Amino acid sequence: MRLGEEIAVTLFGESHGAVVGALVEGMPAGISVDAQSLAKDLSQRKPGGEFASKRREDDECHILSGVNEGFTTGWPILLLIANKDVRSSDYSFLPNHPRPGHADLPELARTRGYSDLRGGGANSARLTAGLVAAANICRPIEATSDWQVEAHVHSIGEVSSAEIETLPLGEGEVWDRIRCRDSAAGVKMIELVEQMKVEQDSIGSSVELRISGLPLGFGEPWFEGLEPALANALMAIPAARAIEFGRGISASVMRGSEHNDTWFRASDGPLPVGEKADGALGGMATGADIIVKLHFKPPSSIPQEQVTLNLDSGEVETLFVAGRHDPVIAPRAVAVVESVARLVLSDLAVKGGWSQDE
Amino acid sequence: MRLGEEIAVTLFGESHGAVVGALVEGMPAGISVDAQSLAKDLSQRKPGGEFASKRREDDECHILSGVNEGFTTGWPILLLIANKDVRSSDYSFLPNHPRPGHADLPELARTRGYSDLRGGGANSARLTAGLVAAANICRPIEATSDWQVEAHVHSIGEVSSAEIETLPLGEGEVWDRIRCRDSAAGVKMIELVEQMKVEQDSIGSSVELRISGLPLGFGEPWFEGLEPALANALMAIPAARAIEFGRGISASVMRGSEHNDTWFRASDGPLPVGEKADGALGGMATGADIIVKLHFKPPSSIPQEQVTLNLDSGEVETLFVAGRHDPVIAPRAVAVVESVARLVLSDLAVKGGWSQDE
Amino acid sequence: MRLGEEIAVTLFGESHGAVVGALVEGMPAGISVDAQSLAKDLSQRKPGGEFASKRREDDECHILSGVNEGFTTGWPILLLIANKDVRSSDYSFLPNHPRPGHADLPELARTRGYSDLRGGGANSARLTAGLVAAANICRPIEATSDWQVEAHVHSIGEVSSAEIETLPLGEGEVWDRIRCRDSAAGVKMIELVEQMKVEQDSIGSSVELRISGLPLGFGEPWFEGLEPALANALMAIPAARAIEFGRGISASVMRGSEHNDTWFRASDGPLPVGEKADGALGGMATGADIIVKLHFKPPSSIPQEQVTLNLDSGEVETLFVAGRHDPVIAPRAVAVVESVARLVLSDLAVKGGWSQDE
Amino acid sequence: MRLGEEIAVTLFGESHGAVVGALVEGMPAGISVDAQSLAKDLSQRKPGGEFASKRREDDECHILSGVNEGFTTGWPILLLIANKDVRSSDYSFLPNHPRPGHADLPELARTRGYSDLRGGGANSARLTAGLVAAANICRPIEATSDWQVEAHVHSIGEVSSAEIETLPLGEGEVWDRIRCRDSAAGVKMIELVEQMKVEQDSIGSSVELRISGLPLGFGEPWFEGLEPALANALMAIPAARAIEFGRGISASVMRGSEHNDTWFRASDGPLPVGEKADGALGGMATGADIIVKLHFKPPSSIPQEQVTLNLDSGEVETLFVAGRHDPVIAPRAVAVVESVARLVLSDLAVKGGWSQDE
Question: Is there a domain that residue B90 lies in?
């Protein structure tokens, strides 16, 4: 439940408990905190959107420590979001009827029945609200540096967007509804999701992340490197099943002469040049964009009858999960992916001494 | 350079320095250590194989602390492997001519010129010898539990193997040469690699990893979970560019009704059933096999003329890297992938109290 | 702000902020939580007692996550205590008039003016409420094992108690007022403290801690050992200036023939025998009692005129600190010392696998 | 076995194993390494001195990684010292006859008989050689800052030195023999130790440590603060039994009006003034000297007959421990105390960003 070493974020809370949130340790003193920006970031991932769960949460985030007169103090920052619209009666089938595709049963086994399984308990994607809140506090580190983090919906089912680096920043109605910067693809994605709702099914999706402007050498080697650290943090987002960097899985069918990026001189220093040139080598930034694709499975909660094991009787029974769930993950995950990337980069920036120029 | 929390492995050394190796902390006392098994594991990844670098190292591993009369003592275990066949003259083009696709230049920037870049320095895949040695010490933890770790070459270029779970264990000539359990595919892989050598080029590849037998609930949630922990550790293997779990990138085009695995009752407890049913949900084991695909780019060192920036003059110049390098990564990476998985699982086993039944 | 590795407690909050509290990570699932016991422990250290600060806080502790139906879930436990009776106007002399003996000025320098200094900010002993709350959650670990933690006031000024192992458990009026188990000494201590109040001064004190019943070999070596871990945690209690184990500073004038404890056989195993035989050797328990003395300076806030530097003018000026402060530290520190010891032992118990017999 | 977070030192080795040493992680790149200085520091604590163990070790330290052309590279530094003069036959009484005052028996219990007990195994003070070597690498951090670390023998038995701040730096014959800067006291100490050898006994002692020149605000709060971090690290030195900061145990009999140090203005900023004014408040430096006294018990190995339990027979038997041991600890501990303080300060310097002015 702890992400990062220098800037360490510990998530807490349960989907149907009193609160969710994050404790942020190691944030430098003197970083300005902006309540409006925090509310806006949280609104990007909050439930209740068009294609999102019908759970209604205002997701107001209380900053209870570590901030004084609008600036971080260097002490632990407690970020607290109350759970309000909880309908635990929806989960009366637990613990005896574990949902297909959910962590109910492994969690039951792991904690010997002691954890709160309702709504996914502490495994719920609701806890990503704490990640988004924590990442918002890190935004000024990014602003005073030159790097930028952007993500959007790359694909839903078979509908794919153009490449992120060729697209304008997201805005307008299609963006608001589906978080894809390619309007043409976005319209088709919306149609597909609407069809899923009609068919009482859900659909897989992917998010593309672009990190630009990292200085040459930013990062750490081996297990703390850019790709391993991002892979760790992003694969922890519920429902993530695969992650690709740069040319991703295509790299495994390429030749060296084709894949190698040549070092050229750009206006502000050396830069590797190539089609989708690697933005990180050996865990460290090259100056080129880091392009990441994160693939999500379709949401496991679907509004149709399924079968599962009745743990009590040992029989397979039908199960209908009411709940209020999303037919697709990527649109709400965009804000989470950006937040997780921001946390990883901020941690690496402090670790490597890159954030201290301010 | 540190992997794991309960069983923590810190790598050290440089490709052209005196040694490489690992310090292993947290290993429980009383684990038997087998010098022959250690030598065998190291031989699987050592340079000098048919399609491997021509560097000759006997890779004898000295255990200098933490083992007493054949058993671990519970104290730090120092594993030391001397570098012998170092030809540093091959690297006289550094630091001014950073190699395409290598970490030379980011590393130069990160350490302000202080690190030893020859042969990739501490970023070299040679340091994976320390991972293999450390993982060997963990083997008895796996043996007393019921889980198993196996990997093989899944693809080289466009040549793919059948699925790992359908194949016999690796043995025989094709296995020895290329580490693919599918002999028919293996023969074609060998041809392809030989062709690469003729063409003075290199080729991408992938390794498939199968973890079977983990008990239901094994693992941890969120950032320490099975998938995030494996993604972190495996993506740190030099040249890894993408990682897939279960149905991997295919999951992002599937529907929920299709992707959801149903819980059924197997002989020894509940089990999710489905095509490539997920072996981990929310970071915890389901009882099904965990299937991982790790994609490697083609080796960046190719025996043909390339161009790069001369940092001194600011001009682009041709560069021919002599060195002794592999035309493909997967065959030697099989042992490393297995080792890394073994380290991650051993760490999680101690963390979750699963290893203490012995 | 983080204590422990397996059971890790992170404190948060400020003396004059909204809350204080603790986030507890790593607590095993299935530990029963008792709200009454929690309230009782907190009442032992809360302000408002006879010789304590006149600040009135009910110190009600809200458990906001990690506990389900009365048992820990194995997930992070958020313990929150609201600040209510805050009189920040008392601190209008800050930041320009740093108080003698307080951390105001070093903290101002360390955080470049960004932290909240009122009432000591996050350096305030008020944050020990979080330690006491967190330690209460660990009590059942102690109950299912055989060890016990007890502390009492050993001395105030020149008035000393008899040795803790010769005294009955604390109860009755003297205990309630001054937390000394030696009634005769306690009466004199009360007189001394009352005299201090008359003289508008404060007085130094010490707490004695006795840990009994640890099994032979409990603990870890070197920096994580019993004495180093206890020294670290106990010396972090505000105003602690010295710590002694076993024969303490007397050991430095003794001879080996006199100091060495002989191993004899007790009813349940080997035991070192000697006058104040060492309860820990090399960081590990011997079976004998561990006796610790923790020495506190007199409270720095005294209700008389003092002088300090005006940082603005650079002149030395008189300063009268109103506030509401204790004339002696040990009586309220008894609960904190016990709590800190309980946290350290619980962490070591989990680390060494001693807590898993339940 | 791991000290520090930013600069982390992990000790390894056993007294009668192949090696002892340290792995140093987190050292910034570009720190110059001086082999002569390293040898000199190690010679200060090495066995074979006049009043030291007769074990002869040249204590040559091999730097096997992390240093390139005389400078640190930023990668892990492996420091290795071979054990040469091992006489394991001296320890044939183990494991069945645990020595009084030693960790033999708790260690035997803790590791269920698997660790190497000869010469104290990994609990041996021989492992402090790794601390001294690691601290030497940190010396340039101290040199480029303004702080200084000095220690000397404060007392042996009842013979005490004058206060360290009143004494010249150590040199000359008395210093060489006994490491006390007060020559008059040193002469008496030498006499006392010689008498102990005649009487086949050992004697307790203490070391005084003075840290001067830390900038105001240097350090961290709570458990990572100067006093708690130093207490943790110094109490891990074998045989340490008590530690005092500033006025130490005397503080517990003082009044606030007497103990409080007033902030005055010194030439380069505010400074607390008082008799032995506290050099640290709340874990952070005040600008005044930090004075620490560390009390050691007499060495437990004495060349006379003792009694102990025969674990095999359950009977108490006489035991004569041959070995080669010191009659007093402080003289050899001076170098270790300085080294440990240097490591703690270097770690805090990196943590707080104080070391980056270079």
Answer: yes
Which residue among D66, D76, D122 sits closest to B75, beta carbon to beta carbon? D122
Please indicate whether, in this complex, the C-beta atoms of D106 and C246 are within 8 angstroms of each other.
no
What pLDDT, on the 0 to 100 scale, is given for residue A357?
43
A139: helix, strand or coil: helix
- Is the pLDDT assigned to residue B24 strictly greater than 50? yes
Identify the burial level of A323 via C-beta atoms within 10 angstroms of its C-beta, where 0-12 means exposed, 13-18 middle and 19 or more buried.
Answer: middle
Query: Which chain B residue's Cα is nearest to D64?
Result: B18
pLDDT at A311 over 90: yes
Q: How sure is the predictor about B358, in pLDDT bands with cuts at 50, 70 and 90?
A: very low
- DSSP strand pairing (D71-72 vs D67-68): antiparallel
Cβ–Cβ contact D356 with A under 8 A: yes
CATH (domain of A340) = 3.60.150.10
Our CA-based measurement puts residue B327 at a distance from the nearest CA of chain D, in whole angstroms, of 28
Question: C217 CB near a chain B CB, below 8 Å?
Answer: no
B111: closest chain A residue by CA:
A217
In a domain, B357, yes or no: no
Q: Do A243 and B231 touch (CB under 8 A)?
A: yes
pLDDT at B53: 66
Residues of A in contact with D284 (CB under 8 A): none
Check if the beta carbon of residue A95 is closer than 8 Å to that of residue A117.
yes
Q: Chain D contact for A353, CB < 8 A?
A: yes
Q: How far apart are CA A193 and CA C257, in angstroms?
A: 83
Q: What is the DSSP letter of C233?
A: H
Q: How confident is the model at residue C90 (pLDDT cuts 50, 70, 90)?
A: confident
CA atoms within 13 A on the CB side of D219: 35
For residue A31, what are the domain limits? 2-351
What pLDDT was estimated at residue B323? 65
Chain D positions touching A221 (Cβ under 8 A) are: 75
The minimum CA-CA distance between B73 and chain A, rounded to whole Å, is: 27
Flag whether A357 is in a domain: no
Q: Are A236 and B225 in contact (CB < 8 Å)?
A: yes
Give dist(CA D24, CA C298) in Å, integer. 40
Q: Of residues A121 and A322, which shows the higher confidence score?
A: A121
Q: Report how many Cβ contacts below 8 Å link chain B to chain C.
A: 5
Least confident among A127-131, A192-196, A264-268, B326-330: A264-268
Q: Classify the C-alpha dihedral A100-A102-A108-A109 as positive or negative.
A: positive
Tell me, letter by letter, the H, E, C secondary structure of A147-196. Answer: CEEEEEEEEECCEECCCHHHCCCCCHHHHHHHCCCCHHHHHHHHHHHHHH
Tokens at C348, concatenated:
């070591």
Least confident of B56-60, C314-318, C335-339, D196-200: B56-60
Say whether pLDDT at D174 is over 80.
yes
Q: Report the alpha-carbon distance of residue D229 to residue D345 in Å, rounded.
A: 9
Q: Give the count of domains, chain A.
A: 1
- Confirm whether C184 is domain-assigned: yes
Residue range C43-71, pLDDT digits in tens: 988 765 666 666 777 889 999 999 999 99
Residues of A in contact with B205 (CB under 8 A): 252
Read off the pTM.
0.96
The Cα D254–Cα C157 span in angstroms is: 6
Under 8 Å CB pairs connecting chains A and B tally to 335
